[in-house]
Design goal:
globular, Thioredoxin-like_sf, oxidoreductase activity, Glutaredoxin, two-stranded antiparallel ribbon, single chain
C-alpha cells in the first residue's frame, strides 16, 4: 500500500494528520505493508525568508482577524492536537517560509532519512516553537538526526533539490489538491484533511479490500502448546 502525503511543516493539521495516519495504520494492521512518503506543499510561499512575525499576528493578518481572535482559533487547533498526543506551543511560534525545509528533506531522502527529518521538523516547529525557515535552525535539526552538517549547509546555501520540490507542488495542482494534508493511496484513492482515526481506519480497510490487501496480524500472548500439520508442540 503506497501512501503519498502532500503536507507543509507549518500546517497544524498536517502534523495532526500524520499522527492520525500512523495510529490508523497500527490499528488496522497495515503499518508494515504501507510505504508512506511526504510530498512538498507550501501554504504560505510568500512568507519572507527571514520572518520572525509571531504566529498569532500572522494568522490575524491572513484571516482578517484580531490577534485575540487568532488566539481563540488556535486554542481549538491545540485541543485537536492533544487528542493525538501533541502539545502545540502557539504562544511562541513564528511564521516561517518552508521552502528550504522542503529542499532539505529531499536531500535527507538521499541518506534514507526523509521520514525522520519530516517528523523532526514538525516537532521542532509545533512543539519546540523553533523557526524552521531559519537556516541555522535547519542545520541544527539535521545534525540532531546524524545528517552531515557540511552537506546540509551546502544544500541550504544553494538551490539544490529545488526542482524536486517544485515538481511536488506542481503535481499537487494537477491532481486537484486545494489544501493539506492530502493523502493519496496507490495513486487511486484520495483522503483530504486530518480525518479522525476511525475514519482513516475505515478508509484504509475499504481500500485494502478493493486492492486485495490483507492486514498483517499482530501476535498476542505467550508462545504455548499448538499443533501444525506435521507435529504438536507441547511447550
Amino acid at each position: 500500500m503506497k501512501i503519498e502525503v502532500w503536507s507543509d511543516y507549518v500546517c497544524p493539521f498536517c502534523y495532526i494528520g500524520k499522527r492520525t495516519l500512523e495510529k490508523a495504520l497500527a490499528q488496522s494492521g497495515f503499518a508494515s505493508q504501507a510505504e508512506v512518503s511526504y510530498k512538498a506543499y507550501q501554504l504560505n510561499p510568500n512568507t519572507p525568508i527571514d520572518s520572525d512575525v509571531p504566529t498569532y499576528e500572522s494568522l490575524a493578518k491572513k484571516f482578517g482577524q484580531t490577534v485575540e481572535q487568532a488566539k481563540e482559533m488556535s486554542k481549538g487547533v491545540a485541543e485537536h492536537a492533544r487528542t493525538v498526543g501533541l502539545e502545540y506551543d502557539f504562544d511562541n511560534m513564528v511564521e516561517a517560509n518552508t521552502l528550504a525545509a522542503h529542499r532539505l528533506v529531499k536531500w535527507a531522502e538521499t541518506h534514507g532519512k526523509d521520514g525522520e527529518l519530516t517528523e523532526k521538523l514538525m516537532d521542532e516547529y509545533f512543539i519546540q516553537a523553533k523557526n524552521v525557515g531559519n537556516h541555522e535552525v535547519l542545520v541544527s535539526i539535521a545534525e540532531s538526526i546524524d545528517l552531515p552538517k557540511e552537506e546540509a549547509v551546502k544544500v541550504l546555501e544553494s538551490d539544490q533539490f529545488m526542482g524536486q520540490v517544485q515538481l511536488d507542488i506542481a503535481e499537487a495542482g494537477q491532481i486537484g489538491v486545494q489544501g493539506v494534508p492530502f493523502f493519496v493511496v496507490n495513486r487511486k484513492y484520495a483522503i483530504s484533511g486530518a480525518q479522525p482515526v476511525e475514519a482513516f481506519v475505515e478508509a484504509l480497510e475499504q481500500i485494502a479490500e478493493e486492492e486485495g490487501i490483507r492486514p498483517k496480524l499482530k501476535p498476542m500472548g505467550k508462545k504455548t502448546s499448538f499443533c501444525t500439520g506435521d507435529s504438536c508442540d507441547g511447550n
